[in-house]
């Protein structure tokens, strides 16, 4: 069973007086299996944040269903949504979102404190996780004492401390220089190899080329998807760039020429 399954999801935003409805997402169906590493790409305004907000149960779809780790999100009462998010999801954002007055260890432990985990269990978990993220010697530091890359690793540790079914990352490399971004993406790759399911929204073709599958959204619809298969990262990067070019040129995937057909032949799969 997939960790995440969206069926025919649509989202319409209504302005206050209902005059100008914005159809942000239309008929999105997709699933993410346990252990997958999926990137979502699309132009500004294509609906990526809307999609993440729906998956994170921060907002509700206008139509369709979203099943996360065996629970249909619409069945979760508002009062239990925060607890559900804490138990099933980890979040990494572009701007780290660390608490300045908490040291690294307390930042990482925050979700466990909120879920009232006993202190010995918290200690055990943070001591096991920190070395995996290169943070073993940083636990008593404060965020302002760390580089951007280190801060983002603290954010990743905080996201992973609850052992979430799905790690959601929204432009995680957006505030990092290219070298540091590369280090973070290598870390995500390692986490994924160790079994972590990851869904990452990104504008960066390089970042997306670290994933096993890349979904492209255009005007709120699933435009295309690419599978890594046995392509190298560089080969996938070329295909991603071709698809982005086609998307910006408003072509269909097949008009984009080899991109779609070669990928379909390679994987036997193709989106809509
Ligand atoms: N709360 C809202 N009320 C009305 N319209 C909204 C709201 N949030 C988003 N939209 C509209 O929905 C569409 C999709 O927006 P969304 O933020 O999901 O795109 P995005 O792909 O995440 O963009 P970006 O890459 O710039 O963050 C856009 O037309 C946007 O203006």
From TrEMBL:
This is ABC transporter ATP-binding protein. It comes from Lacticaseibacillus jixianensis. Residues 4-244 form the ABC transporter domain. GO terms for molecular function: ATP binding. Pfam families: ABC_tran. InterPro entries: AAA+_ATPase, ABC_transporter-like_ATP-bd, ABC_transpr_LolD-like, MacB-like_ATP-bd, P-loop_NTPase. Keywords: ATP-binding, Nucleotide-binding, Transport. Residues 251-272 are annotated as: Disordered. PROSITE patterns: ABC_TRANSPORTER_2 (PS50893). It comes from the Bacteria.
